[in-house]
Amino acid sequence: MKLKDNEPLRERLAAEYVLGTLRGRARRRFEGLMHDDAALRRTTREWNERLGAMAEFVPPVVPDKRVWRAIENRLGVHAPAPAWQFWRHGALALWRTLGVASSAMAALLLVSVLRQPGDTARMSDIASLTDEQARPALVVTADRTRGLMTVKVVSAVPLTAQQALQLWAVPRAGKPRSLGVLGANRALTLPLPADAIGADVALLAVSLEPKGGSTNPDGPSGPILYKGAWIRLLGSG
Amino acid sequence: MTSATQSDPAQLRAWLHGAAHRDRMAFRSLYDASSPRLYGLALRILGRRELAEEVVQESFVAIWHHAGEYESALSAPMTWMTTIVRNRAFDLLRRTRNDADTDTIDHAALESLADVSMSPPDRLQMSSEAQALADCMGTLEEKHREVVGMAFFHDLSHSDVAQKLALPLGTVKTWIRRSLARLHTCLGERGAA
């Protein structure tokens, strides 16, 4: 087959490859040719764009909710790369910037989150955890003197009975440390371990997990939903 | 009633990029915007709800894992996802064809051929590429259009199509060859205009 100089034949084979009528040995041979022929790959891609639009001739049908739930479950359990690892891929600097950018938001939230006026006096640090669109979802406050931290849900994704949110301290090096698991409760007071707020803690993060918390001993098993950095409040302990 | 979101390719591209960076929110938005089209396609190919759901599920798991390999310069986001769904649906179709219930699938296959030509309201939900393709397919003879649609949606070889439509194999091959050449010319003219 002198494919190289035969433009009409190249077009025809690429089109039939995409359409699916190029079969068996001919199909495999075509794939072999494509491997070494960038122009042929491009021709095939162009046909894929042209004929692929045929998919839109079919009326859209909204799939049942269970499809998304199944996807979420599968990605939570079977993801080969744990979701938290992307902290390690150069994104940390960017995320820390985001954390700082949301500090103004965190300050604003102080007023609405805290009910008792006395609370502010005992607060040493605050973190506003936001989603990818920088919308605040949780506020975490720390009281270094008493060794306590409080997590309050401002506006987070609704959870099913089988889901929970897990709070993590993400250090600059090493594995994320679990700080606690939130189920249906909207607020939670937890002990404040030193390694939750130490200088090596780059970020706080919240992952979506099965009820009871991550199934992975080394970090989150589900996707990271929210993140934010601690902010030390001036004039406190 | 749910209307299809004809999502802006730039928006879909941004969500795919987010998914590549493990942004769950972006992935969810991508799913919401594109799953009705992709599920509709899987349903058309497979004709059975549970199989189509399985394919959409597998496809989105693959999209999450491979979003980083998507090259926006090379293909439209919807085409990329459509190709994933179509390939997976065909894989499943090949596996289930050996089962006893081929009748259901073939019945669905033949039913679906009627509406390759579009009603005007449906056209409004299509991308400009799909509208152009629909127009160009409209210039083909009905039988030819049917043959092309059959091959695309149902993973049929020349001889499968020939058998189903009781036509000589050579005729089917010629029709498909001519139809693809005509589409190429027609789309090229529209693109140049």
Quick synopsis:
With 237 residues, chain A is of the alpha+beta class. Chain A has helices spanning 7-19, 24-35, 38-52, 65-78, 92-101, 103-113; strands at residues 125-130, 136-143, 148-153, 163-171, 177-182, 187-191, 201-210, 224-228, 231-232. Chain A folds into 2 domains: 7-57, no CATH class; 82-232, Sandwich (Immunoglobulin-like).
Record keyword descriptors for this entry:
heterodimer; A: 237 residues; alpha+beta; Immunoglobulin-like; 5-stranded antiparallel β-sheet; 4-stranded antiparallel β-sheet; 6 helices; 24% strand; elongated; B: 193 residues; mainly alpha; Rna Polymerase Sigma Factor, Chain: A; Arc Repressor Mutant, subunit A; 2 domains; 10 helices; 76% helix
What would you note in describing this structure?
The complex is a heterodimer of chains A (237) and B (193). With 237 residues, chain A is an alpha+beta fold. Chain A folds into two domains: 7-57, no CATH class; 82-232, Immunoglobulin-like (Sandwich). Helix content of chain A is 32%, strand content 24%. Chain A has helices spanning 7-19, 24-35, 38-52, 65-78, 92-101, 103-113; strands at residues 125-130, 136-143, 148-153, 163-171, 177-182, 187-191, 201-210, 224-228, 231-232. Chain A has a five-stranded antiparallel sheet with strand order 6-3-2-1-9, with helices on one face. Chain A has a four-stranded antiparallel sheet with strand order 5-4-7-8, covered by helices on one side. In chain A, strand 2 (136-143) and strand 3 (148-153) form a beta hairpin. In chain A, helix 1 packs across helix 3 (38-52). The longest helix of chain A is centred in the first third of the chain and has 15 residues, at 38-52. Chain A is elongated. Residues 77-104 and 106-117 of chain A have low confidence and may be disordered. Chain B is mainly α and 193 residues long. Chain B folds into two domains: 1-99, RNA polymerase sigma factor, region 2, helix turn helix motif (Rna Polymerase Sigma Factor, Chain: A), CATH 1.10.1740.10; 101-193, Orthogonal Bundle (Arc Repressor Mutant, subunit A), CATH 1.10.10.10. Helices cover 76% and strands 0% of the residues of chain B. Chain B is built from ten helices and no strands. In chain B, helix 8 crosses helix 10. The longest helix of chain B is centred in the C-terminal third of the chain and has 24 residues, at 169-192. At the A-B interface, helix 1, helix 3 and helix 4 of A face helix 2, helix 3, helix 4, helix 7 and helix 8 of B.
